[in-house]
Structures are given as structure tokens and as C-alpha cells.
Amino acid sequence: MHQVKKVYCRVFQGILKFALPFLPYRTPGVVGSVKKIPEIIQKKKCSQVLIITDQGIRRLGLTDRLERALLDAGINYTIYDRTVANPTTANVDEALELYLENHCDVIIGFGGGSSMDCAKAVGARAVKPRQPLAKMRGILKVHHPLPLLIAIPTTAGTGSETTLAAVITDAKTRHKYAINDFPLIPKYAVLDPKVTLSLPPFITATTGMDALTHAVEAYIGNSTTPGTRKNALMAVELIFQNLDTAYTDGNNIEARRNMLKASFYAGCAFTKSYVGYVHAVAHSLGGEYNVPHGLANAVLLPIVLESYGESIHKKLARLAIAAGVASKDTPCEEAAAALIQAIKEMKKRFQIGDTIKEIREEDIPKLSHYADKEANPLYPVPVLMDASKLADFYYALMEEPTSSNTEESAETIKEASHDKAGN
Questions:
Q1: Beta pairing partners, 151
Q2: Tens-place pLDDT, residues 381-397
Q3: What is the pLDDT of residue 381?
Q4: C-alpha to C-alpha distance for 140 and 214, rounded to whole angstroms
Q5: Rounded to whole angstroms, how far apart are CA atoms 313 and 333?
Q6: What DSSP designation does 189 have?
Q7: β-strand pairing of 48-52 with 138-139
């Protein structure tokens, strides 16, 4: 990265970090069951609900308990269930039309991050009807308070129930971008483990590793606070203690509940301290090829961590202790390596590969440009990389998942990043 751009990025990030204590972050109210939602709606003197979800959630009957609770309380509702993975501007437009037609005053995002992001974007369009979403991309461009927004996560991973971000894909260009503003933080997050029981093992794994990525990237960045560090450590501890159980025994209520807590803590961490290049690259893959976000993060996480080199060894060592793969007496470099290895072994147990087969070499310049534009200067990463360096990650993901190739590509990226370790 050019020296002038490096300086610009670090100054920008420094200003944001200085401003953190003065910004209007808030934590959503936590609710333990969907059955308590009617009481909240009535207290807020609202009457018409739009539930935003997807067809898979509907087919599984996961919204049934919520629907019964609303009907029993005499609260009208409409359901939009056409949200896709990596929700598009077309999804938002369709759901907004239902919102307006039915004179709704409550929006419930019910599902994974896609449904919750779509719900946030619908709320933003509802309060700014003359402004397209593309004009709200970036930071602090929504401004207006949203209608009552309630998030019900059915996966323990995205953290969208806590964050100020909505990630949307342009239906025409397939470019994926984030809208970030404080009104997008849901008023309430419903952490009900019963709605996660039918989650298939593979999705349980990838969304759980999504939460792990949130916690790790928030912790190793340069804009942490005591609160976000504490949240990240708690999330990592809970994930390493519960994800395998949730994966192998999906009906274990305690493991499901703890994974929801982990996702919530990780979301609280990264909504203030931001994420890093794992997310920037993963978002570009989701936008271009519709690769599920949790899967992309899981595949990328150890590769990107290795690329940062010794600049993050001390921080990874503390995370390793929380994960239970190192002790306080373990040397930092050894502990950092143990954590990365534990993540790789976790991927193997969950049958998550090391490549993204959809990547086409001719797309890499465009994808790396998108990742660069998303991450720099906003993400306070430990080592700065420009588009040409980010391109290495895409090439690494194209390689055959043989041990020799994987180790060689990771080592190449690691060596190339050593020159940047002081940034």
C-alpha cells in the first residue's frame, strides 16, 4: 500500500477510535422467548407487524410460535418470506411494498443475518422513502429513527441482532455494500434457543464460525475498548465450549442458548470495534457468487490470521487462553499458532473446505477492488493491505486443498505481509 494511503487510513481510524466513547451506541434489549413479543408491541402502542424471513424458515414452521402469539394477542401481521442469502435491493423493495400497503409500524427480522439485514434496510427505506439504498451506503447516512425493529436470530452467528450494519447486494450489479448507522441497531434481540433447534449441522457450524470471526477480528483490530475486548473473549470461550455440541447434538438447548449468547457478545464487540479483511473478502464473494457469508468467513479466517504474522501474536495468545487451547504460561507465538491450528481442526471436524470453487481468476481484480474499497480506511486492521495484496487471498482460495499447496500459499502470504507488520 502506498505510504500516503497508509497514513490516511491510520488517521481516519484514529479519529474514529477517539470518537467511540461519544457515539450513540446502544445494546438491544434482550428477550428470552418469542412469546414475549406481543407484550413489547402493545407497550409501544403499535398494531401492525411485518415479519421478514425466508422460505426455508417458513417451511420448517419456525415462525409458527410467533404467529400464534401475535394472533392470541390480537395483533395483525404480514409475512414477507422471499429473502435470499445475501439479500438484494429487490428483496428490500418487495418487502417495503408490503410494509406500506399494510400500514405497518413494527418490523421483525426473523432468521439469519440475511433476514435481519433485509429488515433493517426496509426500515431505512421506510423512513427515507425518496432515497435509494445505494445513497445510504457507508457511514451515518440514515439519520432518522426506524420503526420498532425486533430481531429474532435463528442462527447463532451473524450478530446482526446487535449491530448498526445492514449488508445488501445490488440486484443488478451484484456489488455488496454495507449501510452503517445507529438507528439500524434493533430495539430488541430475541435470543430464543427453540427457534435454532432445527438448524442443520453444517449451517450450525458455519454460522458459529461466523461468530468466531466477528469476535477474533474485533479483538485483533486497533479500535478495541475494554468492553469490546471482554465481549470478544466471552464469545470465543463460549464458542469453543459449545459449538461442537450444537453441531453434533442439535437438540441440546443449553448449547444452543450459549451459542446465541456467543453470537450476541461477538456482535456487541464488532459493532464498535469493526471487523477486518476476512469480512471484506467474504462480502465480495457473497456479492459476486452468492457464497454464504459464514462459510466464506470460516474458510478465510485462518489464512488471513496467518498473513498478519507476528503483529497479532500477543492478541491471539489471549484469545487462545479464552478458547482453552493455551495457558497463561504458553509463549505468545506458540499460543497464537495453537489457536490458528485449533480453528483449522474445527473446520475439518465440520467438513468445511479450504477453497471457494466459484472463484474465477478473471474476477479477482474486481473482487479485490471491492474488498479494498470496503475495508480501507474503515476497518482498523492490524496490518494494512491494498487491492493487490488482497488479491492473494482469492488466489489462495482457488488452489487445490492439498496440504502442500495450502501450506505453501499461506506461507507465501505470510512472508509477503512481514514487510507490513509495523503498520
A1: 109, 189
A2: 999 999 999 999 999 99
A3: 98
A4: 21
A5: 6
A6: E
A7: unpaired
Provide φ and ψ at 399, rounded to 5°.
Answer: -70, 155
Cell of 180: 452503517
CA dist 392 and 372 (Å) reads 12
- The pair phi, psi for residue 374, each rounded to 5°, is -70, -45
* 354 half-sphere exposure, CB direction, 13 A CA radius: 20
d(CA 248, CA 162): 27
The closest alpha carbon to 122, from 183, 58, 32, 204, belongs to: 183
Amino acid at 333: E
Residue closest to 333 by CA, chosen among 246, 242, 399, 414:
414
- Measured between alpha carbons, how far is residue 250 from residues 158, 195, 241, 347 in Å? 18, 11, 15, 18
Which residues is 149 bridged to in the sheet? Answer: 107
User: Which pLDDT score, from 0 to 100, does residue 188 have?
Assistant: 98
pLDDT, tens digit, 9 for 90 and up, residues 226-271: 999 999 999 999 999 999 999 999 999 999 999 999 999 999 999 9
Point out the residues of the chain with pLDDT beneath 70: 399-423
Tell me, what's the pLDDT at 399? 65
- Kindly give the pairing relationship between strand 188-190 and strand 148-153: parallel
Identify the pLDDT of residue 408. 46
Cα 417 vs. chain centroid, distance in angstroms?
25
**pLDDT for 81:** 97
Q: What are phi and psi of 187, to 5 degrees?
A: -70, -35
C-beta separation of 40 from 188 below 8 A: yes
Residue 108's beta-bridge partner residues?
51, 150
Closest by Cα among 209, 203, 205, 417 to 301: 209
The pLDDT, as a whole number, for residue 400 is 61
Which phi and psi angles does 88 have, rounded to 5°?
Answer: -105, 170
Contact of 127 with 144, CB cutoff 8 Å: yes
Q: Which residues are registered as beta bridge partners of 410?
A: none
Grid cell 497463561 is found at 328
C-alpha 56/C-alpha 74 separation (Å) is 26
Is residue 133 within 8 Å of 89, Cβ to Cβ? Answer: yes
User: pLDDT per residue over 121-155, tens digit each?
Assistant: 999 999 999 999 999 998 899 989 999 999 999 99
The bridge status of strand 188-190 relative to strand 29-31 is: parallel
Nearest to 378 by CA among 14, 4, 22: 14
